[in-house]
Amino acid sequence: MKRWIAPFVAAWLLLAHGPLVSGHEAIPDGPAAREALRRHIEESWRSAQENPAAPSQSALPVKIAAQGPAQNQPPDAPPQAAPFQGFLPAIELSWDASYLNIASDGLPAHPMMIGITAWQQQVPLPQAYSGANSWRIPLHPKPASQPAMIEGRFLRGAIALAVNGIPIFNPQNNRGEISYEIGELDRWGGHCGRADDYHYHIAPLHLQTTAGKGQPIAFALDGYPIFGLTEPDDSPVTGLDACHGHEDPKLGYHYHASMKYPYVIGGFHGEVVEADGQVDPQPRATPVREALPALRGAEVSDFAKTGDNAYELSYTLNGETRQVRYRIEPDGTYPFEFDNGRDGVTKEVYQRRPGGGGGPSGGGPGEPRGQKGGRGKGPRGGGMRNDSPPPPPPPRPADAGPAQRSADLNADGFVSAQEFATSAKRDFESAPRGSATLSEAMSKARETFQKLDRNRNGKLEPQEWQAAPAPPPAPSAVTSEPPAPMQSRSSDGKFLLTSPRLEDGARMPVEFTGDGSGGTPPLTWSSPPQGTTSYALIMDHIDKDGMTKWYWTLYDLPGTLTQLPEAASAMGKTGTNFKGRVGYEPPHSQGPGEKTYTITLYALAAAIDPGVPPDQVDRNALLAAMQGKILASSSLRMVHASGEGAQPPPDRKPPGPGKPQEGLVKPTLGDTMKLNVYADNWFLLYVNGRLVAVDPIQFTPHNVVSVDFLPEYPMTIAVLAKDNADPKTGMEYGTSIGDGGFVLKFADGTVTDGTWKAKCFFHGPENADTSNPKITQEPLPENWWSVDFDDRSWPNAKEYTTEEVDPKQPYFDTDFEGAKFIWSPDLALDNTVIFRKRVEKPGWTPRWNTKPDLDVTRLSLP
User: Fold this and answer.
1) CA distance 82 to 77
2) How do residues 31-45 score in pLDDT, each as one tens digit?
3) Which helix (H) or strand (E) holds 406?
4) Rounded distance, CA 35 to CA 726, Å?
5) What's the rounded Cα separation, in Å, for the pair 234 and 242?
6) Is the pTM of this model over 0.90?
């Protein structure tokens, strides 16, 4: 039986909120802004430990069930409800036998946005996390047979819910960067996403006081609780596993937050379903306007409630304070005013309207109220575009039949995305087991829902069900497209598709498009699942009308294969492209704007038989043949726009169609050279002015990076290496002093040793004084990576032994024979070092064009 703890709160609880900001401290200047959040959280946590407020209920650990109900809590309430009670009535709770449901408007009581230095031009708007779109915490979590780690995965949506009803996202943003470490978060660990939805990216330790000492501060979406920096009895945390949790006889399994990565959890100990890069199902945030790009140089300085449902966000840009003022009107409109300082004031009105389309109200489509022609503008640096959320539901229509009645769990006459997913999971669990997995079933259900939801309002109405040819198929009988990785490039977190010529999400080199020679790109892959016997490949693109076009289909690639050369031929069997022709169709990207093309490689448990000759194998036939045999998949995304590459760089003459530049040969993967690098803790490496390798993991854990690249001699190598050190104190992890170390080996025999040049640019703490730490720092020189940079006055590097550096695995499993660890003179106190080395190879002549197509002069260094 459902039981409501608080009176019903309308979807837009913002109407009832009091002032959000009062008496907050000033924003620190310059680099201090990035550290303000960490200090604020740590101070808040310490205050809560030393001067705990009286909790609103008895201390209740979360094997919470073993401790009995909290004070002021209905006797039939699940124990997981206890830590949420301190935040009533801003949130409301209900429950059944399986889930605790949390409804909120997505806005916390604490201030927001202040201190953000990497602002995406979003502002906090309330979200309708209520009814069928509420947050759900499993009351009986189940350990997963294999933990699902979050690094590089689950980059969309929430991974946990804080006890104040605010979602917690992966510490990595959707580009894979650590949000906290690049200035995207406010002092409370949150910011607004693309739907103007406020959420955290690190653990909200500041909630401990309100939740009650000894209570969890959040729940992961697998149902297990997340506690703070200590155990509920104030004892230190020990023995955490890779998920950042551990088992306790009294508490059962639970996670712990931390002051460094992963900040929240490292992975899901319990069962979750991953679909389209997120935990599925979960509530949907609904935007009022389209997302905007980052406003470079802006820093959010204030956020305040200025009246009933009226707000003002202030930010500084180029020494000038600017504002975004907005309010929510009873008629559902959202008037925005953008005070752009010396650039003037612009206004925009957004409105929710039937069909879910977003746009300014008044005038014609896309025309702002009170303004003629075009769109209004947001803060300078990005135009204000629009994409509104679904409208309020119309009166309940007539029933559409038994299929809808079965999925309409709350009997309101409509089927929400969450209800649809819940119904699909129920059907999967009750159906006979086929070859499909639950993840595949949920992905299929999500795809089916999106196809049925023609008006894009986030729910299925009877007429949409009636228009469907048949009810959604049982998920255990999934027969269509398997899930291609979205934000997570690898379905299992290990199998990875890469390319020596392509970076995921970057622009496609012209030679692989219709503007160039039109050859296939080179590909490499690693860590296939055990049992892989063959591979298949699809390159496709979804056009503006939602139609899928495919450009490359390849199958029967042997399981021993690990790469495809550029302009591959006679490799496996080639199917057709969307034009019906056999072979690769290079993208031409007709029409304006950038288009994204995705190459997905599938690791298969058995060879496939499409049942037709290769000249009849299209994308759908290949997907159908793979069904039930996919062990893992990995994707690589490329961006191309019409006409890109039509004009060659000024220092190159365009070759004829399909011909290499005169005097040079077309390289193959056989011409590449292997490079192995290990750094304590992080590095950036250039060869002849071209960026060749970057440590993908920020400071921890220790790892080896191996890459293949085309050599060109003389070879000038330039490396920026950093030890993990606080930029103000030079200390590591609080009061410790770390040490550095760098080693590399090229396949041509080039290794690090004392002949390399090395210069330190950040030293500290001076004299190893940790009680009063001071640092010495000088700016990095311009063009330090270039071939013609003058390093003749620099001293040589100092060699160190393996014992002195103390490297971790996988250093010992990698070929570094003959290479020496190097650093500047002080291994412990020198924290940022640049190394340079020029390698000659007499008699070598250029064989290919390796002119860089990357403008490294604009690269933003950490």
Assistant:
1) 8
2) 454 455 545 545 544
3) helix 402-407
4) 9
5) 22
6) no
